Amino acid sequence: MEEIQSLIEKARSDIQEGRPEEEIVQSLLPVLESEPEEAGRMIESLIENPHPRIARILQHLLKISGDKKIRKTIKRSLYRLKSRGIPVEEISPEKEGPVFRPLQAEPPGGFGGPFDFLGQRFLMLIVPHTGRGLTVMQGIVSDTEGLADFSGGEMPRKRFRGFFEEVQKGSPFPLAEMEPSYVGFLFVQAYKRTLERGKTPPQDYLHLKGEVDGVKREYKRALIYSHIREDEIEGDDLILRRGGDLLKTDVFTTWKMREEEIRPYADEVWAAEESKLVLNQPQKEARFQEIYQKALSNLFPEERRSLYMKRMEEMAYILLKWGREEEARIALAVALDLKKPAHLLQPNPFLFQLVVRTIFTLLSEAYEKKVKEPSFIVKP
Description:
This protein has helices spanning 2-17, 21-34, 36-46, 52-64, 68-83, 157-170, 180-196, 203-215, 230-233, 237-240, 259-274, 281-299, 302-321, 325-337, 349-372, and strands at residues 109-112, 120-128, 134-142, 146-155, 176-178. The protein is of the alpha+beta class. It has 3 domains: 2-95; 109-220, no CATH class; 230-372, no CATH class. It is elongated, with a radius of gyration of 28 Å.
């Protein structure tokens, strides 16, 4: 219902701005063709604010539609407009029927990049307009903060190709093609998250919100599940065990924990290594494992495991679109494992290696710093 209301508001706005009636009709067609019941409510809502152009738009829709109920609703709405003094052109019986040929608009386009370790990613949404150029929108969304950045505006078609190539060059990884309705959905989710955190959304987003709302639709699951079935992956321990290997690949190479949260555990590992107590190597290893498990337990409660689950679902889709299906399946196995309660004896291999790698990165930096420190001991 929210999507229908957005379409109605956009149609009213387009009417006031003087947009061509063919374009407005084109924007209403998806509901007319796929959701007859909603189409009836949409038509009745449109005439709440009588306007001569609404009458002409309804007449166009009458010529297109072959659904008897919708046609009856349109005729009733036209009669109500006429009774309010709005001029309505009489349609002779021989003119009725789907004879109107709407201008064929290009389909919208969507692209997305991978997450970084902060939970941010780049998204792009392109909405073509019949008889005009393209509305090109791009932004960085955060799965914790919301809309980190957003910009957009109209662009001639001829200019877009060069613009897109420049965007690709500036990105460390190629953008993957995504369902535009899903990109719109991700933008809307980020917008809501921004509001929840009490922040002000970017002005460009507020200006182009209608464009985003007109493309997006609701999704209950990530796109990856439309390509790889859950039951093909879930419970396959051989695939899951390779989860830690993902951190060796280029796309995950920068993933790490924040220093301020992992530092206490790195200090404990350092202390265990430097301990004056006589510990053999197996005892030290056992102590290290205790520290890693404590870090996993404290840093990844259920809410954060769910956050990483969603990140890995999205990463699985990106990897699949890049043609890296095996890695996509491993990433999805990691995501599905994160749906389960944490198991200390069998920790999620991806999170475990993420913790260990971040700790040893900090320790390596600390060791290098210690080696470079000048010594004040005078050698004989």
